[in-house]
Amino acid sequence: MGTTLYLIFLIIVLLSFVIIGKTVYNRKKIPCMTGMMIAMTLGMSAGLIVGLIFGILFSDNLFVATILGMIAGMVAGFLAGVPVSIMAVLDGLLSGLMGGMMGAMLGVMIATEYREAMIKTMFFLFLATVLILVYMIQKEVNGKVTAFYRNPLVPVALMGLLFFAFNQTGPIFTGTGSAEQNHSGQKESDNSLLIKTKEYDFLPNNINIKVGETITLSIENTGTVEHDLEVIDFNPENVQQNSSHKHGQDANPIHLHAVPGEKQTVSFTPDEQGVYRFVCTIPGHKESGMLGTMKVS
Q: How does pLDDT run across 165-183, given as a tens digit for each residue?
């Protein structure tokens, strides 16, 4: 995960607690219906964005992504509803559950090249939702809006400034890029591919090869802990590898293991078209984002 993703998580948590804190502080002045709307909206929006992120991080395990997304949404909805009423709590819980489920499914299904754009879109929708909730609470408590909301250009300008700053922080998922960038960056020679590993990314994480061509695939461990690369359910011909590492998994013959600073290589000839996943099988590494796709055309 990139630094930007940690920043997104931090902002989501902080803004959620801002809404929850304002609800707690003004609980005696907030009508039940408004409290229900606050809990429902916060639970749904937090569940959607967090579920989306976990759906991408755990793209090979929809169950885990869904559970984590639902927990995040339900906690946000529950905490926002508790100060108001039981009905607000129920609204918040159910909305958070639904938002987490939908976000996780979207994250698992979305194509790799659209992940960052989708997260950015959902994140700014979350920010807009928070601004609306602050406006709603302010209107209910004081009967009027603050100077911040009197001129609509002010929140629009703030959102634009945040968007600009957000795009200066770097990629959300380190080691990712467009398909064209990955295709050109992976070539050492015509049929040689190099994938660099570090904590916890493959660079690149999308590669394209052709049926019938003899491919030389290498991994270079530029990190500080051991990593490996295994292509799932891929059985090419003419596999040749000089390595003392025995992983004991005959079902997946393409398996490279490298300690820090080491480079390992395997050659093979793909004989079937398809899209195959490759992962790091070191415990916890795949779950942290070490996975990618290999397209054979």
A: 666 555 666 544 443 444 4
